[in-house]
Fold:
Amino acid sequence: MQLRAADGASAAQGLKLVLAAERDGLPFLRLSDGEGRTIVAVLEPEDARITVGRAPACDLVIDHDPGVSRVHFELERVADGWVVSDDGLSRNGTHVDDRKLDGRLRLNEGTVLRIGGTAIEFRDPRDGETIAATRTIGLGSLPPVVTPAQLAVLKELCRPMVVDGAGAPAPNQAIASTLFLSVETVKSHLKVLYERFDLDGTPAQGKRSELAARALRSGLVRRADLE
Structure:
């Protein structure tokens, strides 16, 4: 497996890295590191099995996310494709399209695996639509990297919209009370989250609702986690 990292955290730098990987024609994994940089892990022809987790011995190490287990899941080459399996390796499970993985699953172009707060997208340039799709959706298909504390704030922000069917996200005071934080701390987390979700230029009146909507659409906050 060959690891490549973008030079910086901008979307343009990440997209450049992904397009270069697509031109090479090999399947790869795409994710973000703890600093928001795009990481590409190219699955080379000689690779038969890939382990993913926090442990230094893993082939793909994700050590910035405490929700990732030491060995979280394995990828295995089967014929000309790849299969993912968890089989009880992780504490929190591996989710695919908001469903917890049970057993083994063959990966298709665009499959997104979620472990802890990290999203990992499987890409296969052998699919003729891959490059066109990347240029269309850019890097927006993967949620930004957030800390566990920021994720907790996001979940509480979204909770009324999912559980109560309310049209508005939770106010700062309600989030602070639930998480035993000060209102100022909640505001500080939200300020960073606005930046991570590219909402700095959004009018203040609709910024909170848009943040909650993007968090839910991206899968970073799962409805199943709130119900």
About this structure: The CA atoms of residues 22 and 79 lie 21 Å apart. Confidence is low (pLDDT under 50) at residues 128-140. The domain at 11-129 is CATH 2.60.200.20 (Tumour Suppressor Smad4).
